[in-house]
Protein 1
Amino acid sequence: MTAEQEFLNSYDKSIYEKPSVAVDLLVFTIEDDRLKIVLVERDEHPFKNTLSLPGVFVGINETLDEAAARGIAEEAGLRDIYFEQLYTWGDLDRDPRMRIISVSYLSLTSSEKLDITAGSRTASVKLIDVDKLLRSDIPLAFDHRKIIEYGRERIKNKVQYSRIAFEFLPEEFTLPKLQRVYEILLGKPLYKANFRRKIAPLIEETDHMTSGDAHRPSKFYRQRTDSPDIEL
Amino acid sequence: MTAEQEFLNSYDKSIYEKPSVAVDLLVFTIEDDRLKIVLVERDEHPFKNTLSLPGVFVGINETLDEAAARGIAEEAGLRDIYFEQLYTWGDLDRDPRMRIISVSYLSLTSSEKLDITAGSRTASVKLIDVDKLLRSDIPLAFDHRKIIEYGRERIKNKVQYSRIAFEFLPEEFTLPKLQRVYEILLGKPLYKANFRRKIAPLIEETDHMTSGDAHRPSKFYRQRTDSPDIEL
DNA sequence: ACAATAGTGTCTGTGAGACAGTATCGA
DNA sequence: TCGATACTGTCTCACAGACACTATTGT
């Protein structure tokens, strides 16, 4: 078999029997001191009335990142939020209807930006407490439980050497708020003094503070844009 | 539009315009104290006579991991070696012929196992010094330079918190050999005493040593299978 | 004896962890 | 003054980095 023939052969095979490609979206936020994820309740079979990750098929003239951004906009009404590719799932029986390869994306946003009612499928979109969901045995569509577990782990790991925690907060925030975010993502309490030491090089003061609370006010900070070297 | 119609619509669209899905393989090994990668010289257009990553299309009845394992076996003649998914590349113009989404896999092996002449495409398969390649401006096919850079970074990171370094050695090895592997992967020298301290909990002695060298012999070790907790 | 590499002992500084203490608001 | 939360000072211990030293082979 010549190389040319070999190529045409494999090319043809791929034309006639291609899997479908979709992106599944893990949109995380923090609300009421809990890490939550955007899920939709399916209104069709298979897995009718079961919770599932929002997802879209990847268009033939659309990159994966573009498909992810589109999906986030359509399902959660969000633009310009942080996202990164998570993992690609390719088991044969993921979807009983047909072969679908799913590229999952991890996306993080502050609860201020997230407006669930802004998406197109308002009614079926829910914000679910992730850690509670994963401890429970509530059924999830397809292999989405495994995917969510994987995403949850990625967050827990990445918090420790990157700045993803900041994505859960608005531009300006107090240190107690930031510490709460870290504690929620890591799932354990942190010491105030130590936390502030480690985080100090990553942030800078603003000129205003909280007010109105029945206790000492708290300075607002923002992320430093310069010299982003040291990490938590 | 009803939910049913909406599903059929997106389903049909995905049927008629699906991208192809391939896996690209980054098979790394260490030879002559250098980190090397398996590349093939393309014998067809596009990028004829240019170095590229070995890859295969994903069969419709094949998982991604299976496709990766098959590709590694076909191109490098290897079975049962370490591999993990790296990243999925989905730009529109990756391949000028058609839309191909590529799931890249990182694979590591000892040079003893790697026998380039065992693959099916013997003639065109080459072992290339990665760091030298990336410093050079030797052209690579498609977006493979970017993919190799990404893989190289993954190795550099993962060496520090996992045991992937061991994959480059046979089951039994001396500590000087292991230290060389770490130094090559990290791209910097390490202190003997410190290295041994850190690595100690991960390994166990065997009952034999090197011999025949004109210097003090060196104990053989193997990886500990129990209590794999502490990392480098 | 010497070259060459394997392997060990130990000092020092940095930084995480732990905890106690002080500061500043509203009521 | 008190409750509540923000913020700071400092001790300790583990450990990474650095370097000097000893050990064991073949020639």
Protein 2
Amino acid sequence: MIERELFRAGTAGARGCRRRAVRVASAFVRLATWNVNSIRARADRAVAWLERNDVDVLALQETKCRADQFPRHVFEAIGYEVADSGLSQWNGVAIVSRVGIEDVEIGFPGMPGWGDPPAPEARALGVTCGGVRVWSLYVPNGRSLNDPHLAYKLDWLARLRDAGAAWLEEDPSAQLALVGDWNVAPQDDDVWDMGVFADSTHVSPAERTAFTDVLGSGFTDVVRPYAPGPGVYTYWDYTQLRFPRREGMRIDFVLASPALAARVTGARIDRNERKGKGASDHAPVVVDLE
DNA sequence: ATGGTCGATTATCGA
């Protein structure tokens, strides 16, 4: 981080200039994802968190606002660009970046829809930031094991796997990040008590297989090695005193392509951000790159 | 005690 501050401040000496030559190819170093549960309710908190944590690119989920309602100005005021999927009052995602945003794409190729508008494609937003393709994803909630929303969720994940495989086939050296709220707890340790989830979504074999299939198409969970369980979660229900009781779920993930995974130097889940009045029910997940 | 809490849109619904 010291090197990086020198680089940004332009105060590095001759030795720093050599570092700069190396750093040019690595346009950003800190990537995060956060289900904010309404960006309007959380704008001040999100801005304070960004500044405190020196984050370059932040993918947001559950923005819960139309494009015209997104509080762009508060992010632009601190030097971030904003891309917003903008179509849904409920399921929207966004990406804010201080290293620029290019090639904005709403919805991934083959992404299935659900019913009528508000547009289901708002669940996925792809942008390129500093040579890294970042997808902010809000995977559908299956609601319950017999609900047609679960079949939709499984289809959605299967199509995402297909898209991911196609991107990597086209360019095996691509730096791709699939980040967001996956609404899947892939391992038993990713919930506090499997007994509670016996007949619930998020832990069903079908959902876990769908998630694992995305990994199988060439992606890696780059956070788990730096934040191993058990007892490590990214979400705690507002009800039932779940957070103080440490009863949560690990359902937010950063999946990286091989070229991007090779750049990862660290990761953490910011559990502190779940504390206090005005918190989202999800914690931010942060990945450092070199 | 079969709820408990948020958020958005308006007495419910989704998470």
